[in-house]
Amino acid sequence: MQTNLADWARDTDFGREADEILRRCVHCGFCLATCPTYQILGDELDSPRGRIYQMKEVLEGAEPSMVTQQHLDRCLTCRNCETTCPSGVKYGELVDIGRQIVSERVRRPLGQRLLRETLRRLLGSSWFTPLYRLGRLVRPALPPVLRAKMPEARPAGALPADPRRHARQVLMLSNCVQPAMMPSIDAATMRVLDAVGVGARFAAGSGCCGAINFHLDAQEAARDQMRRNIDAWLPLIESGEVEAVVINASGCGGMVREYAHHLRHDPAYADKAARVDEHVKDVAEFLAPMAADVRARMRTAPGRTAFHPPCTLQHWQGLRPVTERLLADLGFDLQLFADSHLCCGSAGTYSITQPQLSKALRDRKLEAIAQTLPERIVSANIGCITHLQSGTQAPVRHWIEVVDEAMAHG
Fold it and tell me: Could you tell me which of 187, 285, 288 has the C-alpha nearest to residue 245?
């Protein structure tokens, strides 16, 4: 694709990066076939190729509008298009640049600003846990979009007595919403790791990965969160006290793996971020070499199970085959279903900011899964789990919870 960037963009870091990405696009249209929003809406402006054209026009000097912003907002950032693209177009990096530029030039309507600011402030605050508990108490009176975000609580259960007794030690991410919404996921992860001789703990000073701020027009606030996590993790990594940062929410894992990219222009943190990235592991990736040990501790084998691979696992991190091989090795009777490569519509806060599109994608996903008659649905990201559960009576769990329940602890 030929480009002619405007003067204000041409000699900037973001302009050079965007120009390189744009020039790789050859207009082939392969991305249209795998774009969830294009499949639902049928509008090329809501496809990767259409959004690329719109971002190109803005970078070449066209003034963006609320319509431009709407088309970029509708993108789930699933990156299925990157998996499909034969030219290696880094669409995810381009849309990050495009959204930031448009957000600086287009003032959102008051309702959108209030919603996005509320989500940013609430989901990353200490108020989230008590408010979420209160919300569960008054759940029947809440609007449907909020009620769907409050599945039935599962108790965390007892944690390992002394995880530091193990020679092998890892850190876990202090997720911003998971401890309140589904504390059973972290607890199950710690118990499974403990059972195979690995102690897991949280680093003081660490917190949210930054994804919520980053995707709600607050990229610099997100980078501050990235820096805090790096400061909390890197000394423990470099001292040898821990061997990895193990993450059980693929959305967070996808963001943390890109710290080096997001901080590439920060002279104080670029190298630190790269060193942290080398030690980030999805929990399936970490456990895969110990699959036989895990299986030996399982009393039962899970039955018919549909595994929904989150976009952040398969398209962002490229870990779909790793996870599915592990689940098969652990005795899961995995049921294949159509279009498993497509997004379920969760996409972080997308299910709140774009409820209609999100629900349509969820229902398509659940319809495909239902054809396999599974006993349960499992996934690897809290957002997908919560979103899918809001549309089905079948139990939707994190796969690590199912493994934990099948294990003989103690």
Answer: 285
